[in-house]
Structure formats: C-alpha cells, structure tokens
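--- STAGE predict ---
source: upstream dedup step, 1 unique chain passed
mode: sequence only
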Amino acid sequence: MRKNLFRSITALAGVALLTAACGESASSSDASGEGNGDGTTLTLAAVPSEESTSLQSQFEVLIKHLEEETGTTIEVQQATDYAAVVEGQRAGKIDIAAYGPFSYIIAADGGIPLQPLAAVIDEEGEEPGYFSGAYVLADSEIQDLEEARDKRVCFVDRASTSGYLYPSAGLLDIDIDPAEDVTEVLAGGHDASLLALKNGECDIAYAFEDMEGQLVEGGELEEGEVRQIWKSERIMGSPIAVNTDSVDAEIVEKLQEAFTTANVETFVEKGLCDSVEDCPLPEGAEWGFAVVEDGDYAGVREVCDITQAEACNV
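--- STAGE serialize ---
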C-alpha cells in the first residue's frame, strides 16, 4: 500500500528512529515487576502538531488516567512524521497511536488491525472535528485561493489531513491541480508551514485552523501577521487508535471504557489536575475525549476519492 509515499527517505528515517526508540516490540511484560497492574507496558506514539521537546506534557494526564484504568504502563514516543507512526504500528512496534484522520485511513485501509478509540473535544457532548485553513501574509496581494496558481504553496506532509488532503480537494474544486499548477513545499509540520510562510519560503500555507492562535500565543507569530483566505469543511477529529494485534483484547476493552471518562472533570476528581482550567490535554483540548468508530471517517475516504491522492492508493 502507498509504496511511493513510504519509500521516501524521510519516512524511512522516521521509522528507523521510532522503532529504535521502541525496542524489540511494543506491548511487553515488565520483567522487573515495577510497572502498573499486570506489568504490561504499552507504547503510544504521536506526531507533535508544533515543534516541542516532548509530547509528555500534552499526554501526561491522559496517560496517568489510562494507566490507572487499564493496569498497564504506557510509554510515549515522539514520531518524526505520520509515515513513521503507520509503519511502526504495522511492524508491531506501536500499540496505541494518535493519528490525523488521513493517516488513520492510510493505516486502517492498508491492513493494520486498528480500533479507533476516541478524539478530542473542547465541550462536553460536541462532535469531534476541526478545520483546515489556507493563509497568506497580511500584506500579501493574494486575496483568495483562486490566485494560488503558479504560487509556492506550503503543505504539511502528504499524510496530513488538514495539511494536505483537504487542501488538495479545495484546490481541485477551483480547477487548480495541486500536483501541476502550484509549486509544492512540504514543511513537515503545521507550525513549520505557517513559519515558512512568515520566512518567505512560500506564498500560501496550509495548517489546521487553531495553529495560528497557538503560534501567536507562543510568540512565534504576531497578531494579524498572517491572513486566512480559505477554510475547509469540517474534518472529523483526529483519532487515537489501538493495534488489536499487539494489544490483548481485555486491555483493548479497558482502553475503550477508560476513554468514556477521559475528561477534565474526571481528571480533577481523581487528583490528576488541580482544576479544569489547568489540565493539559493533547491538541490543547479543553474538555477531553469523545468515543469514535471507523465509520466516522467515511468523509475522509470520500475526499481521497475526489483527490485521488497518491497516498490514498491502497
């Protein structure tokens, strides 16, 4: 599946880095007896949405909750890109993965036995989801996406939902072929895409819609330094999925149950956070998680059909 994408040097380097970090296998028994519960150790891998020294701070509270509810020890590994996560799960080196919707489809439709567990939400009861945006510098002469032809366009990577797949569909909708009519720049991250725009490396940059605010808050962009010229339809939220081959069925069930109570109110009650306002979660989520299933990602598969993106070819 998707042979051309995963034969790239970047992807192979990412897989090498990740599998080296994970060791011989992902799910393993703690011979020292110092782990939680039955001594099972699971590996969770994710790709950071912005440059960071570690994903540990984003996942720390969630991991503690999952460990308590499942009786396992969970180790977090930072992957270099989505291709590394997919191939790591295929090789049995990763038990649980935080995917983008597109990379989840790549993995699930490529034969990896995955059970999606949950996706983040900001309010109790809401549907998981987010948007892709196209941005230009505030003083750019470009006013709308129809002016993208012959421009340098920053995408995230070819396995990114909001950084490649939905942007490609948006361009095709206005008769601009992303493979032929623009100069593609692969930035490698949502933050890197907008920062490349800032640094003059591209004329238009794609990122998930909340990325601009995160960079402004972090001092890497000035308020109003970039301007949004396009917004995608709603994209189903990024799922956390478990490899049902590498993880025992009983633990999979415990993980599913644990995610039904994975929210800031539960975390405060359990003493994992001091308050709901100060309770860090992945992707900057404000509430917690909503349970998802494979059928929720039919829309992503439809966009694959529209774009005929190389990475979608199973």
